[in-house]
Specification:
mainly alpha
């Protein structure tokens, strides 16, 4: 229950943060790679480097990761099937041989059907995830959040001493 409350708190903080919708969308899109693909692989290290180099919202990365983990488990058979088909394609055999025998590229683990399938699915889905998340954050800020700020309950919570105490001690 605590994790669900923390997730909702992070979601609200991310949606209302000063980060642009593009930063939030990119964070969600990059975070999904950690949930969809097996964690201990070179491509996840590259994604982490991108997250640190680009100005993306870290809570959005965590949100993308958290949401995509159950999806990754559900889609695992599909990833395995897709990866197996790609690995068995005769035209691609020289590529897989080169990747497996290259010193650094072997760390990508692309000879594993689940890794390959999940990486391909993420690569195809990352663009639409980014665009959808960016659009969703923009729409939320333009419509729902503006209406929420006008409600009596929102104004009462913001004016309360408990909320002011929370603002002083909240972790940044």
């Amino acid at each position: 229950m605590y994790l669900i409350i923390k997730l909702v708190q992070k979601l609200v903080a991310t949606l209302n943060s000063e980060g642009s919708p593009g930063q939030v969308g990119m964070g969600i899109a990059l975070g999904t790679i950690f949930g969809l693909t097996p964690l201990l692989n070179l491509h996840n290290l590259l994604a982490l480097a991108l997250i640190l180099l680009l100005r993306v919202t870290l809570p959005a990365v965590m949100l993308g990761w958290f949401v995509s983990v159950p999806l990754g488990f559900v889609l695992d058979p599909l990833f395995d099937w897709l990866g197996q088909r790609l690995l068995e394609t005769l035209v691609l055999t020289p590529i897989w041989t080169t990747v497996t025998n290259a010193p650094v590229l072997a760390l990508t683990n692309l000879n594993n059907s689940v890794v390959l399938g999940s990486l391909v699915v993420w690569a195809v889905a990352a663009g639409p995830i980014y665009l959808l998340a960016r659009w969703g954050v923009s729409r939320y800020r333009e419509t729902i959040y503006v209406r929420l700020q006008r409600t009596r309950a929102y104004k009462a919570v913001r004016a309360s001493k408990l909320f002011n105490l929370y603002r002083i001690f909240r972790p940044e």
